[in-house]
Amino acid sequence: MRLGDLGPEGEWVGLGETPDQEITFGAIGRFWAGETVWRSITADDFATFAEPGCARIGCNLSFREYGPRTLVSYEARTSATDDVARTAFLRYWRVVGPFVGVVMRGTLRLLDRTLAAEARRGA
Q1: From CA 123, how far away is CA 113, in angstroms rounded?
Q2: What's the total number of domains in the chain?
Q3: What is the SS3 assignment for 31-83?
Q4: SS3 label, residue 86
Q5: What is the pLDDT of residues 32-79, one digit of tens each?
Q6: Which domain, by its residues, includes 74?
Q7: Are strands 22-30 and 37-38 parallel, antiparallel or unpaired?
Q8: CA–CA gap between residue 65 and residue 51 (Å, rounded)
Q9: Cβ atoms of residues 58 and 15 within 8 Å
Q10: At 12, which helix (H) or strand (E)?
Q11: How far apart are CA 99 and CA 54, in angstroms?
Q12: What is the pLDDT of residues 13-36, one digit of tens each?
C-alpha cells in the first residue's frame, strides 16, 4: 500500500488530506483471526459502517515544522462494530500491540533516512 495511491474506494481508503501537513486513511475488516479479511468500502461509508464482527482502523500521519526539522506523528485508532469483535480485537492486540511500536519506529527511521537522502540530492 502506498499512501499516494489511496483512493475513495477499496480496502484501504483515503479519508482526508491537508497537502504537506496531514493525511488520514482507513480500512475495515476482520484481522484478528489468522486470516485478514478486508472489506471493500468507500470513504463515505467508513464512519457509519456497522456490520457485526468487524472493526474500523483509522490512521493519521501529520507533518509539522519543528525548527529546521519536521516532526512526524502517527496515530491509529480502532473501533469494533460489536462486543464480540471488540473482545476478539483486544485479545489480538495484547499479542501484537508491542510489535506494532517496533514496526512503526522502523518505518519512521526509514522515512527519516529517505527524506535526508532526498535533501542531499536536492530533491
Answers
A1: 14
A2: 1
A3: CCCCCCEECCEEHHHCCCCCCCCCEEEEEEEEEEEECCEEEEEEEEEEEECCH
A4: helix
A5: 988 899 999 999 999 999 999 999 999 999 999 988 888 888 899 999
A6: 3-121
A7: antiparallel
A8: 40
A9: yes
A10: strand 12-18
A11: 22
A12: 999 999 989 999 999 999 898 889
